[in-house]
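Q: I have 294 residues here and want to know how they pack in 3D. Can you give me a structure?
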Amino acid sequence: MHDYMQVNVSKLVIIFLIAFSLAIGGIYLWRKSQVPNKDITDIQVPGSEGSKPQQSQIPSNWFEFAKQAKTEAECEQISSLETVKDNCYLSVAEITKDISLCEKAGTWKELCRSRLSETNTKYSEQQAKAIISSRATEVITTLKANNFVKLSTYIHPEKGVRFSPSTYINIENDLVFSADQIKNISLDQKKYVWGVHDGSGLPIEEPFVKYFEEFVYSHDFANAKEIGYNRSIGGGNTINNVFDSYPKSIVVEYHFPGFDPKYEGMDWESLRLVFEESNGIWYLVGVVHAQWTI
């Protein structure tokens, strides 16, 4: 009799445990059905209607959407993934030629401004090359020879020539010299303040000849690896405002992509010569030194 009661008790315990498990499972399933599924694989992105993309597919869909966007409103639909949103504004700004959208391009803001400023130039790269290549070759050869008497003949008779030690041109503070001043500049021992050194912020205070060696013909630009006509080549984290500063110009960039392989191109340098037309003659109005900045 005792054994019979033990068997019945065991059966009741097993039945209770099974019933308890079923009840807990039922409650779990009921509660889950009452809460929206927020799993990322259920998020719908433009172009994914009718399918359930995998998690790894979502960024690529957003990128595709950003690449195809043509309006600011479309970019605003991207509520996350800021990098993608920045790319979207960059793309739309280039399509619409609206430079104000560059302010929303985040990390690509300066690249956006640089690209759009180039579109505001009067001449295409091919046109600029046809117009100015011979003149530019004469000027760069004259710079290489340190022939300042001859250089003075290429300088704009009214505007003179502005020397900018960095990519960003400071119209108000960058020094301007007339043709007559340049003619005898090699004899001038006066120390001028040309701007500030990148990184340290210390003033660039030196005579013209020293400045010329460091910030004009610092490399053999007459034999540069690449030449751009109304096309910027070197780019970094400093605003390139050459086309904003000289909107009616032709800009010739002499560029070295780098010198020491260990720097992986971060030691690039460019010399930009800016020309403007006066009475049918193209004169030198700007000399810009450009390189990677901190």
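Q: Anything worth noting?
A: DSSP finds ten helices and eight strands in the chain. The chain has a mean pLDDT of 81.
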